[in-house]
Request: fold
Amino acid sequence: MLNDMPPEDLSTTVDLTPDERWSLFAGQTARIEWSELAPLFARGQVVVVDASLDLVDVAVAVVDDNKPLVEQWMQQKLFGLLDTKTASFWAEGHTPIWAVVVQPWVLAQARQIP
Reply:
């Protein structure tokens, strides 16, 4: 599904308010199957977002270039490139994955099954 979507041109988000950017990314966030995410992982474009963070808030922080916040998440290992161990687990298909495109990245997050 995400492979069929054109990546959001970040230049179009510059004139939006933070609330408008949040709404934009919320509307573009969707569940994704590993088979769709795997080619992007192979290209090094998948960034994993810890389940403790709001995926849309993270997308807004990235597009807003909020370096202090993103660096804090990286130091806390809450945000970073998808590693092979996690990718292998996701490939098993037991975990729902949600994603949003923040060009050139795909932010992905495993969700707990209730």
Remarks:
- The beta strands are 30-32, 46-49, 79-81, 97-102, 105-110.
- The chain is about 40% helix and 20% strand.
- The two ends are 24 Å apart (CA to CA).
- The mean pLDDT is 88.
